[in-house]
Amino acid sequence: MKMVWITCNESISEELMEILDSDGIAGYTVWKDVLGKDNRGSNTHWDNAVFPGKNWAFMIFCQDSNACRLREKLEDFRERPYVKKAGIKAFINDSEEII
Description:
4 strands, globular, alpha+beta
């Protein structure tokens, strides 16, 4: 089993949910209004006049095969110019259900 952790700008979060829902992901957890600091680029979002905007964070648990498909879809999604500009990060870790 894998855990996929995604953070993205709120402007692309609805489209990301469409990708997750269309890929057969059984369910996921979403945190809205997440603030983020980017020390390397221009994607700091503090929801203020200087650094406007917020992020959403997604946590998905899925089988390895679903994680591989999702990875490919996320890589394709990230290639869209407006997605690159908005900002998205994704990470995959091994996971084990304990209860």
